[in-house]
């Protein structure tokens, strides 16, 4: 919107885009070179290479292809047919049904790439504009994480049990921040802001999610290292995790904001944004009719009863650790977003989703991932939920009723959440491939379950909490 705050980082990114992006990229390259030349760990270069190739194949390429799907029906149909054939061929090669012995493709990365492309393409009416404007996000975040891997090597924590998950969280956080810049740019531009002003404001708005990503990653590293070291958190690992996550997010933020200032999108960007809002309003209408304040309050009470039943039936593993982790997430959200509303909603979604997920795993007879893997999934879930909760905070208005607030919040936050869901799951698979961390695939499945429960609960809690808060 005109007059939206741009901040120091937003202005710097748009006024000196080549300089800021170049400095950050050079810093990542220098760290990598020093780590490899010093031979801090013999696996450093291999991990970097596998991570770069995996992220390019599983995240960057699928996001770019889905973002630039042709608009015209016949071109889009032809493009999807060709993409389906290419994806099927890659899958057959990866699983050994075609070209056995000639070509080798990693199964997890191939499956993640094909799945992410299908996911984003199916959701193109909601996500295309944000992905198209934030197309540099996966590449910029990857550069930041590669530099972070070099930093891990220099600190002699490259093969620590939590390094792989930390790299996945940092990559997902960077992608989320970059796509958020694209979404905010489209929103500001559609409301009349100039190109550079919209890019600067979008870059400034992404700073809080970047800080939250760093603090959340530090919380994850703190709780896991506390368990691994028998009651003593490793401060060196915690600081390294926070710095890597922050560097990846800032790299993505700066690259996307600076790129938008240079590329200068056309007025079609505003047209696409307005069309997206119209489509969402039409899609949301049935949900709006079925979710008045009284129904939302009743549904929230039922959800609470189910939580109590699940706790009595299945309990919850490592409850003290989960409570400590939730308290750290509460503090991280409060510092990053400076909002009681967003903090309460993130905490509620994380707790309820974790209880439901554990109950579901027990009912299906499935083994839960390990403690560190569960906390990695919970950290990514917190990043995904924050995309909804911050939109809910921004949509708050004393002149609107609870259903209007929830609709506006979901209109802005759902595309961000979906991008975070896809990028988070793919990042875990990439880290599993690069660090030889098989449990990463299990963590990705657990993250998908957590996110699904959170998405079902979020609009209900938004309406219920908005209705209660309006009474005061």
Order of helices and strands: HHHHHHHHHHHHHHHHHH
- Average pLDDT reading: 86
* Cα end-to-end separation: 29 Å
Report helical residue fraction: over 70%
Classification by helices and strands: mainly alpha
Number of helices: 18
In total, the number of strands is 0
Shape: globular
Low-confidence stretches: none
Most strands sheet: none
Q: In percent, how much strand structure appears in the residues?
A: under 5%
How do you describe this structure in short?
This protein is an all-alpha fold.
Secondary-structure topology with pairs:
Elements: H1 7-15, H2 17-37, H3 44-67, H4 73-94, H5 107-122, H6 124-133, H7 137-154, H8 163-190, H9 195-205, H10 207-228, H11 235-263, H12 268-289, H13 293-314, H14 319-337, H15 340-364, H16 371-395, H17 402-434, H18 439-469
Polypeptide structure, described:
The protein contains 18 helices and no strands. It has 472 residues and is mainly α. Helix 2 runs parallel beside helix 7, helix 3 crosses helix 17 and helix 6 crosses helix 8.
